[in-house]
Amino acid sequence: MNILVITHTYPESINSWRGSFVKEQVKWLSTVHNLTVVYFKNEKAISVDATGYSVSKSVTGNLTEYTLTIRKTLPVVNQFIFLFRTYQFIKNKILTDFKPDLIHSHLLFPGGFIATLLQQRINIPNIITEHSRIKTYFRSRGHKILVNYTLRKANKIVAVSNSLKEEINSYFPRQVSVIHNIVDVSKFKLNGEGDDGILNIGFLGGLGNNNKGLDILLKSVSLPGTKNFFLHIGGSGLLKNDYIKMSQELGIESKCKFYGEISHSEIPEFYSALDLFVLPSRYETFGIVLIEAMACGMPVIATRCGGPEEIVSEATGILISRENAEELGNAIELIADNLHFYKRDIIRKYVEENFGQKVFLERINNLYNETINMNRHE
Predict the structure, then answer these.
(1) Distance between CA atoms of 204 and 186, rounded to whole angstroms?
(2) Which helix (H) or strand (E) holds 279?
């Protein structure tokens, strides 16, 4: 099958986090299909000449990847040009040589909107996988109109969790399939159990805002009676220095290490030093770091904030309430006292069976065939 993937988020190097969830899907899809990926983006600097763009191309086996870089101009005009140039490039350059059976786009806007235009005007069936909160798209009335158009017209919508499916349906009731994100278990080594009397706790996430809940984790481990621990903190962002200051004020600075940005290729090594992974987020559509940590066989703690409820089971960790440092502290203590209960090979097997490439390919291929057949009979 020939698949055209359209996305505005995609890793530009082996060390990049951005769009790594799209790249992981693309990698496995290209083992069974012919894939052409169009990754489109704006130049960072504003240009007085908004007429041009640049293109780079790479081919690896069944996978052809295009990076389309469009010159950036004034905000309102730029948005129109960004969409128009990408649409025209795909229609006039890509589709003249590559004849897709189906378009698989990522995120309702802008990629999903462009794919839906192509679906409507050229009659190519279109599936959109949504990874983000829908309300983040509604920056203006115009954006809301375009997203609602996409929700109404796209052949199929996929959400990465049931909680995200419910959110989509709260804005526009329609059939939404759920296919979870994928993890390549082979990238991660099964951790051994620590024997130095120190509980090595890990946290990994963006620190540009407080959504990931690092403030709650810092408070929880500073509570009286907390066992001997060391907190490994990966991630960067505007609030990093605030969190460092917070660790100092709580008197736990010596028990925390802030690693800063961890490249995508170094993530398995980061997990390898841990006994427990904690993600106390305020909201998650999925929680890819949880299944990565679990692929190493370690237990996890996460909040009931959307996606994690579909990831964490009794055999793999503990779910807690949001915004509750005391409950998180108790959960850490409980796991510390019962690490022997969590069988690392069982946790890893759970990830492979529920979030590995085999189950992903089976579910997405069924949806591909269903979408193509439905389009033929319309």
Answers:
(1) 20
(2) strand 276-279
Query: pLDDT by residue (tens digit) across 85-105?
Result: 999 999 999 999 999 999 999
Nearest in space to 278 (alpha carbons), one of 224, 222, 205: 205
The pLDDT of residue 50? 60
How far is the C-alpha of 287 from the C-alpha of 87, rounded, in Å? Answer: 31
* Shared domain check, 281 and 210: yes
Structural domain including 224 reads 185-355
Would you state the structure tokens that stand for residue 114, as one six-digit string?
């462009």
| Alpha helices, DSSP H, located in 126-263 | 141-153, 162-171, 214-221, 240-249
Q: What's the one-letter identity of residue 226?
A: T
Task: Indicate whether 168 and 210 sit together in one domain.
Answer: no
| CB contact at 8 A, 288 and 181 | yes
User: For the whole model, what pTM was predicted?
Assistant: 0.92
pLDDT, one tens digit per residue, over 153-191 is 999 999 999 999 999 999 999 999 999 999 999 999 998
Q: Are residues 226 and 341 in the same domain?
A: yes
Rounded distance, CA 336 to CA 55, Å? Answer: 52
Is residue 164 domain-shared with residue 19, that is, in the same domain?
yes
The answer to whether 213 and 319 have CB atoms below 8 angstroms apart is no
Burial 72-97 (b: 16+ CB within 10 A, else e): bbeeeebbebbbebbbebbeeebbee
DSSP string of 290-348, one letter each residue? HHHHHHTT--EEEESSBGGGGT--TTTEEEE-TT-HHHHHHHHHHHHHTGGGS-HHHHH
Structural domain total, the chain: 2
Domain CATH number, residue 17: 3.40.50.2000
